[in-house]
Amino acid sequence: MTRRLLAAMSGWGKSWYAQLLFETNLPKFDLVAIFDYKDEYRGLVKAGLANHYIVGEREKAWSVDDWETFFESNPKVVLARHRLKPEEWQEVTASAVQALRNLAGPSRSALAGVDEAHFVAPQSGKIPDAIEGLATTGRGEGASSMWITQRLAKLDETVGSQCDERIVGGFSGDRDRGKIDPEYPEDVHNPQARSIARLPEELRVDGENLPLRRFEENGSTIGSEWVYSNNKGEMERRDTRDLSMETTHYGPEGHPIHDPN
Ligand SMILES: Nc1ncnc2c1ncn2[C@@H]1O[C@H](COP(=O)(O)OP(=O)(O)OP(=O)(O)O)[C@@H](O)[C@H]1O
Ligand SMILES: [Mg+2]
After folding, report:
1. How many CB atoms lie within 10 A of CB 196?
2. 215: three-class secondary structure by DSSP
3. What CA–CA distance (Å, rounded) separates 38 from 40?
4. pLDDT in tens, 51-97
5. Which CATH architecture has domain 3-242?
6. What residue's CA is closest to ligand 1, atom 12?
7. 224 lines ligand 1 (CB under 6 A)
């Protein structure tokens, strides 16, 4: 099993990248649950890779057993949050994650993808055992996980530090950047940095020490850069403009506020 962290400031392209990773991994796992806080991953459903299920008041009352029964008939599913408050979503996620972990084992691989993970595993307050267990249980755990967040400073530190693979983009705030604690100069994650420390060869762009960049066209993000690193000491600079996705990503872009001319 693997635990992967996907973190960057808002709008950097985490959910886009996460969807591509889900698209790639859905066929490879026996059980997949995507905890879709903002209802963005429907494109995976449209492409026939997963079922879609809206999680609201009724599902709030489901026990771990109920979730196990549910996953038996919906082994790959996008679970969209509907009108549940963050604390309610956290509780539902905990029960569903426990069910997924119970079903996973040597002969059944499972993947839990948690977007807006700082609501499910917040740094402040206690986090449910099922969630903590997903992030911390060692080699025996059958369930892999992907934690997606824009607020590293608000994500439970144990969860963040347990991830054995990290894909981290830009962060404008130093509080979030301070949590990355990388083995390379941290200011590569500051998109506003004018000049940054000498980077290891793998992280340079054509030999140049540049901070991570986000690329826009007509005000819309068309790609962004990331540092992939893992516990084996490997690292790589990635540019999502080099990647293409089969499914459609329905991002909540929001509406821009216009200034008068
Ligand atoms: N490589 C890419 N190619 C095309 N569009 C992209 C790419 N990366 C990001 N985008 C687009 O940029 C917008 C922002 O991306 P996304 O929603 O993934 O950001 P995010 O980091 O998850 O933000 P938030 O923290 O607010 O959820 C989306 O409309 C998304 O489709
Ligand atoms: Mg997102």
Report:
1. 17
2. strand
3. 6
4. 999 999 999 999 999 999 999 999 999 999 999 999 999 999 999 99
5. 3-Layer(aba) Sandwich (3.40)
6. 221
7. yes
Q: For a substitution probing ligand 1, which of 44, 154, 221, 248 has the most ligand atoms within 8 Å of its CB?
A: 221
Burial (CB < 10 A; 0-12, 13-18, 19+), residue 258, is: exposed
Burial grade of 197 (CB within 10 A; 0-12, 13-18, 19 or more)? exposed
Q: Each residue of 155-197: pLDDT tens digit?
A: 999 999 999 999 999 999 999 999 998 999 999 999 999 989 9
Q: Which of 249, 250, 253, 255 to mutate to test the pocket of ligand 1 (most atoms within 8 A of CB)?
A: 249
Helix axes 64-73, 86-103, angle to 10 degrees: 70
Nearest CA to ligand 1 atom 7: 223
Give residue 254's pLDDT band: very low, low, confident or very high (50, 70, 90). low
Give the amino acid at 138.
G
Ligand nearest the Cα of residue 11 is 1
Ligand 1, atom 29, residue with closest C-alpha: 251
